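W.,

You were right to be curious about this one. When I first looked at the sequence I had no strong expectations either way, so I just let the prediction run and decided to look at it fresh. Below is the sequence, 130 residues in total, followed by the output.
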Amino acid sequence: MAATWDFKLLYDSECPFCKMEVDWLKRRDKHDRLETEDIMSEGFDPATYGLTEDQVHARLHGVLPDGTVTEGMESVRRSYRAVGLGWTVGWTAWPILSWFANLGYRIFARYRVPLGRLFGRKCTDACAPR
């Protein structure tokens, strides 16, 4: 059976930033084109997607219906595109600007756990990017 979604986003529900963004995207997903999977849920196995625990905690990942795995800003762009808001982040793929967008994302991803603690994250260093 073919997937009914356009993109599956693997996200960290214990990260206040990630949870807020996923909740915001889901409210705008009028046609159920974005699927989400919580990497912190019991039974989540990153190997299902060819990833390790370290990889899945270090950066945002997503999955296309054909099983192709994306990461970082590409996952952000595809998530927004799935809910019909791709135009708001399309500029992040433009030459030169993509370099800055990718760098900004990598910096955020590296520090999201300590930043999240300031906003109520209860996770210990066990879920921090390695």
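Here's what jumped out at me. Residues 67 and 124 are 31 Å apart (CA to CA). And, maybe more interesting for your project: The longest helix spans residues 97-118.

Coffee later to discuss?

I.
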